[in-house]
Hints:
With about 240 residues, the chain is of the alpha/beta class.
Amino acid sequence: MFGLLLGSGLEHLTLEAGEEKIVKTPYGEQEVLLGRLQGQDVAVIFRHGKDHRFAPHQVPSKAQLMAFKALGVDRVIATGTVGAMSAENAPGHLSIPDQIVDYTTGRDSSFWGDGVLANTHIDFTCPFDQDLREALLNASHSAKIYVRDRAVYACTQGPRLETAAEVRRMVMDGCEVVGMTAMPEAALARELGIRYAMICASVNWAAGLADEALDFEAIKEHMTSVMKSVWRLLEVVVSQD
Ligand code: HPA
């Protein structure tokens, strides 16, 4: 079953025959919306909670991934908004990232030692599942939605936005989009053997890359239009399963 781990801008989503369920995990209770999308069973978790109560550094990723596992989810498509650091990822565009540089600190980022799985150094050479990425790219072709087929995702700690110098450093590190949420969830999914890929929606130029200051009204506008495409892409990838 597909799990959809939805970020900002998709909190209003509903499913056919949708019902809320509370899943108990060793890491706390997790709300999950179960139902059908395009006739397929799916499980949805709103990463920040329906009322957006979790800031990026507070997201209970272990409970979220464990809840998916308990429900039999074997692949997760996550969504996230990002700041653009390359022309190919300009605001208003979607990308399916293929790499991550993790700049987060102090997040609870492994199940190792919790007694819930065999301790292991996961192979994380390719942090996103290649087959799932292909499925998203195929879905984008059939839906005629333009997505960039790769991007290096910088994951920052937040919740503050970056300084201009931090953005310059991340660009020098080879990063192309910046967000606050892909880690640790991508690694936790891999530890649990759940395939994981992400749709990134660029909603602003990263700090220092545009002439004007970051403008939240403009961000909201990009968010509204780009989220329609994200939603369509999710529908198509699920229906093509
Ligand atoms: N930085 C980090 N996370 C983000 C940004 C950004 O500029 N835009 C949307 N999420």
